[in-house]
From TrEMBL:
The keyword Metal-binding applies. CDD domains: Trans_IPPS_HT. It comes from Streptomonospora wellingtoniae. This is Polyprenyl synthetase family protein. The lineage of its organism: Bacteria, Bacillati, Actinomycetota, Actinomycetes, Streptosporangiales. Belongs to the FPP/GGPP synthase family.
Amino acid sequence: MTTPRPGVWTPGARQQRDEPRSAALRDGALHEAVLGHLEDFLGRRSLTVLGLDADFADEVFDRLARFVLDGGKRIRPTFAWWGWRAAGGAEDGPEAAAALRAASALELVQAFALLQDDVMDRSAVRRGRPAVHVEFANEHRSQGWFGDPDRYGESAAVLASDLALVWAEDMFTGALRHMPDARERAREPWLAMHTEMVVGQFLDLRSQVRSDAAESTPLRVNRLKTAAYSAERPLHLGASLADASEETVSALRRYGEAIGSAYQLRDDLLDLYGETARTGKAVGADLREGKRTLILAVGLRRARERGDRDAVQTLDSAIGDPGLTDADVRTVADLLAALGARKAVEQRLAALLDQGTGCLTDAPITPVAREELRRRAHGAIARMT
């Protein structure tokens, strides 16, 4: 069996089971606290899966736990935490600890989304290492098992993602067992987020097969697939736990929608202009997979407006071509810059940052949260990889 990570297979390694975790946190301490809650939760679940089947524990659970614990920026729990603090939620104590543990369940929702996204996009790499479905397929090949390794890998990864989603609900509900009123308030954003992310994923999938070049399509996909579950709904969830007013929730949601959309535009730019060492993904991965991003839609429109048939042909033929070399990707990136598409997207990203932070100016939220959310809007975009 794979060597267990401390804290995963031994629940309570970081703290006593019934000891509330302090939640007076910022930056690295917040990241560490979220990791601690995830380790504790997964450690408890490891006992269950070990009792059911050792192979499942070794092949599926271990990979899922490693995926959840060894990567990610914890953006969603962080926004949920600051939604809680923005609405006057306590900085520490049992309720703060429960709110942070519930927020940590968002990392399992994220795992569900990424595992399935990688299968749908046939992405080979995630966070600088083989995607989970690729790991499963490679194991199938190395063992000489019967059947199609790739089919097995995709199927096993889907099962792992299903488990992540089921456990997300388990962790969220369990964290709030002593706060039933808060749990009920938070059900609305929790459930809405799930529906929105699935709809957004479908729209993304459909835009590729329809070769949808409308600029409105990636904006809608970004709104539902990224902004809603990356920032807007986590903020809404945290604020609801703290029994926020409608005015507070509205301001936080508008901030989250703008900042979450900016995140996706930053990601689109990094796909073409980033570095694999920083992003953990091959440069041009989205282009090869046929994703209809805003920068491509803007570039195609501008090329057509100029009557530049060669540019239109270059872009159309590159979208969805898995055989593109790195040099081909650079050619497309340079062309989009020459067409002004890169600058247009960068300007839209900057406008979204201003729009989002502007929502905080007169919002009825705590001063510490206002300052932190402003800082995180610009800092997270700058570091986004």
